[in-house]
Amino acid sequence: MEVKSTNQIETGNDFNYDRKSEIKAFDESKTGVKGLVDSGVQKIPRMFHSGIDITQNTAIGSNLSVPIIDLVDIHNNPALHKAVVTKIRSACHEWGFFQVVNHGIPTSVMDEMIDGIRRFHEQDADVRKQFYNRDLKRTILYCSNTSLYRDKFANWRDTVGCSMAPNQPKPEELPAVFRDIMNEYSKKIMALGCTIFELLSEALGLDPSHLKELNCAEGLFIQGHYYPPCPEPELTLGTSKHTDSCFMTILLQDHLGGLQVLHENQWLNVPPVDGALVVNVGDLLQLISNDIFTSVYHRVLSSNRGPRVSVASFLSNTHDPAKGSSKIYGPIKELLSEENPPIYREISVGELMAHHFAKGLDGNSALQPFRL
């Protein structure tokens, strides 16, 4: 794409600046942020300028950190199992985030998944362009910034995504560069997701199968994010402040870091831990738990190092974006009482997702309109 002149990009009060045209030209290049980096930009286009001071409310020298929970032997040792349930209850209530180790997914599989996503984004531009689209009904969703046309500023990130459950794509529908590993990884993530949902159910004082029977793990959407090195990382973000709309997200991140969570009004780093996966509560889980578990804000900083690669697996009830039809969810009846009345009205997954996509990355939780 044509890169705007330095003056046009940098001057904040330039009345000649045409943001819509800049976004349109960027999107129509079909090469994403990776294309900008490959073209040799030294100044990031103004559409990426966040206007956010990323040092504000950032914890420095804090001893606080997202809990790390060891799942070793939890199926055979009742004492360990009970201790893990207690830790998960605390983590989901106080943090909305935790990391799991000894989760059963081999490091080799995780490394290959990261490599597969990297291979996709580092293909020749002409190959990537064939996949570029924003159509939620397509098997493969590949674009830069899902809500590019709605957001106040663009993130320094490209994303490829696909729905892997309940209906797995035909092999030929998946890009060859990650076809095999995507299939293998998604099966292992679904199995781990079911285990964690059992632990979450117990953490809520419910039968282990409760959340699974609510079809919380029926759908799986996997996104592979690629964050190229940014020449001016202080001016933009890799991912804006947001919450996830699903029941639960399981994140695989590489060694570079950059993920931050908002805890007690301070941004804290979630440093990569060897062999660990990051788990966070989504909006739907906050809703059905009636705020016992919290879906918290998180973001990703830009960096002049990289590229950074991460793989986010969103577990949710399946829904048809075209029809907007899906199961109805509200606060779980067993959790309610006179002292703990429902905080949310009943909604469908389709209703939540429609609001989530319509609002874009505006910095607000998608749950706000559904509070009673």
From TrEMBL:
Domain of life per record: Eukaryota
Record key words, sorted: Iron, Metal-binding, Oxidoreductase
Any GO molecular function: metal ion binding
SUPFAM superfamilies: Clavaminate synthase-like (SSF51197)
Stretches assigned to the Fe2OG dioxygenase domain: 216-317
Entry cofactors: Fe cation
Pfam families documented for this protein: 2OG-FeII_Oxy, DIOX_N
Membrane-spanning segments: none
Signal peptide: none
Family to which this protein belongs: Belongs to the iron/ascorbate-dependent oxidoreductase family.
Record-given protein name: Fe2OG dioxygenase domain-containing protein
Gene source species: Clitoria ternatea
